[in-house]
Amino acid sequence: MIDLHTHTTVSDGTDSPAELVAAAAAAGVTTLALTDHDTTGGWASAAEAALRHGVDLVRGVEVSCSHHGVSVHLLGYLVDPTHEELAAELSLAREGRHGRLQRMVDLLAADGVPITIEDVRAQLGVDATPGRPHIADALVANGVVRDRDEAFATFLAGGSPYYVPHYAPDPVRAVELVVAAGGVAVMAHPFAGRRGRTVDDDVIAAMAAAGMTGLEVDHRDHDPAERAHGLGLARELGLVVTGSSDYHGTGKLNRLAENTTVPEALEALEAAATSDTRVVRA
């Protein structure tokens, strides 16, 4: 089984990279992609664990993007992590997240929600990319909500008065950077309207024209009609169709290998990569 979208404590997951690989092996995953938000910091640990557990590892990153205020996520597989422009863009995104956390916590606290920035920092792993899930974890720890899903449904959604945006590149620019870094670009959960607003198909077409290779169609946040639309759009634009769990560990319902990618699709993604970063074969 091939699962091409997962997260660890290096960004907003609850498993370390080594724990993620072990969990994937136990779940029957044969090929796993590590795609932490705006960082490649977990690659080395995950690669070591992949060799121990007999799991092939696709090293990737999930680039946080924005198009006229609408959040867009781009999966970049097999990129060169030393590519200067891409690395600089990821660094800007990570730096912007720190100030965002403080502003969101201030807004929550001003309305009487029992939370401090120290509570949130206590949820961050070493060198982790900070994000809203860490605020959610602090709210859970303080007894404000039951789990991450409730936190996002109440306090942290895009339309919430406590939501604060952070720096994020335009998705077409992000595609160009991933391709320039020798990687393969796949748009993550493009039709997940329950998360907030989504971009129109013309934006996806522009991303494809910029060099995007694939579309993540099979995802927990896509209903049958959205999956059918995604399949049609992928055919129209000549995009590879992928599926994945978007696993974050505890606190979210997503489970490893609940959606998967067929081997032929992975082969097409690998063939599109031009960097020296290749799949780690166990």
Structure description:
The model has no long low-confidence stretch (mean pLDDT 94). The protein has helices at 17-26, 43-53, 84-110, 117-121, 132-141, 148-154, 171-180, 201-209, 224-237, 263-272, and strands spanning 2-3, 31-34, 56-67, 70-77, 184-187, 214-218, 240-243. α1 (17-26) runs parallel beside α2 and α5 crosses α6. 40% of the residues lie in helices and 14% in strands. A seven-stranded mixed sheet has the order 1-2-3-4-5-6-7, with helices on both faces. By secondary structure, the chain is an alpha/beta fold.
Key terms:
10 helices, 282 residues, alpha/beta
- What gap, in angstroms, lies between the N and C termini? 14 Å
Order of helices and strands: EHEHEEHHHHHEHEHEH
Main sheet?
7 strands, mixed
CATH class of the domain at 95-154: Mainly Alpha
Tell me roughly what share of residues is in helical segments: 40-55%
Averaged pLDDT, please?
94
Q: From the alpha-carbon coordinates, what is the Rg to the nearest angstrom?
A: 18 Å
Structural class by SSE content? alpha/beta
CATH-derived topology of the domain at 95-154? DNA polymerase, domain 1
What is the number of beta strands?
A: 7
Quaternary structure annotation: single chain
Summarize this, please?
The chain has 282 residues and is of the alpha/beta class. Helix content is 40%, strand content 14%. It contains ten helices and seven strands.
